[in-house]
């Protein structure tokens, strides 16, 4: 048995028992067993809004929301911790560069998609992540955005399939958030 096989077998065996079978439904109903994790009271920051939508990022997902926008009513400060992995996904590169250019200031939103990691996609993936940020900015500004001196002001995050570019048509601006 090679050293690689020694590691893979125990990990594979352990992973079989770690399957998560819960996913929040698109209709917003929370299963009774999960309600204890959802806050029913608390103080939330004024001036921030959040919204989700199903836009079909991944073709096999026909029901669950796969896009989330967190928006600030005015530009705010932001910080992040990034991976040091040599193979960083396009959203990581774009968001890190944006925060560096802006000095962590002037951020309006965060857009997150679930279904396409936009990782290991080269220059095309970086272009897709930049476009996603710019289109989110346009939505948040009501289409009245002038040229940004420091580029986009929306951070981009993605999770999902690796090695495939984000190919969905741009989500339409919506008052849903």
Description of the molecule:
The chain is α+β, with helices and mostly antiparallel strands and 177 residues long. It has a domain at 41-161: L-amino peptidase D-ALA esterase/amidase, CATH 3.60.70. The protein is built from three helices and four strands. The protein has helices spanning 3-16, 90-102, 122-140, and strands at residues 48-53, 67-76, 107-116, 154-161. A four-stranded mixed β-sheet has the order 1-2-3-4. Helix 2 (90-102) packs across helix 3.
- Give the end-to-end Cα distance, rounded to a whole number of Å: 54 Å
Strand order of the largest sheet: 1-2-3-4
User: Which structural class should the secondary elements be placed in?
Assistant: alpha+beta
Number of helices: 3
Report the β-strand fraction as a percent range.
15-25%
CATH architecture of one domain: 4-Layer Sandwich
The parts where pLDDT drops under 50 for at least 5 residues are 1-23
Helix content: 25-40%
Under CATH, the homologous superfamily of one domain reads: L-amino peptidase D-ALA esterase/amidase
CATH fold title of one domain: L-amino peptidase D-ALA esterase/amidase
Shape estimate: globular
From the alpha-carbon coordinates, what is the Rg to the nearest angstrom?
Answer: 19 Å
Number of E-type strands: 4
**In CATH's first tier, which class of one domain applies?**
Alpha Beta
């Amino acid at each position: 048995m090679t050293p690689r096989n020694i590691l893979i077998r125990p990990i594979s065996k352990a992973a079989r028992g770690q399957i998560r079978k819960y996913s929040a439904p698109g209709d917003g109903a929370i299963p009774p067993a999960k309600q204890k994790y959802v806050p029913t009271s608390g103080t939330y920051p004024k001036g921030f809004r959040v919204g989700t939508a199903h836009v079909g990022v991944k073709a096999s997902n026909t029901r669950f929301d796969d896009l989330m926008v967190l928006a600030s009513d005015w530009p705010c400060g932001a910080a992040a911790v990034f991976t040091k992995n040599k193979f960083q996904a396009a959203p990581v590169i774009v968001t890190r560069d944006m925060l560096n250019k802006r000095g962590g200031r002037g951020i309006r939103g965060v857009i997150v998609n679930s279904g396409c990691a936009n990782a290991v996609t080269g220059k095309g993936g970086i272009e897709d992540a930049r476009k996603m940020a710019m289109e989110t900015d346009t939505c948040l500004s009501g289409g009245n955005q002038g040229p940004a001196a420091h580029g986009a002001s929306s951070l981009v995050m993605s999770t999902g399939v690796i090695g495939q570019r984000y190919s969905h048509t741009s989500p339409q601006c919506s008052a849903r958030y």
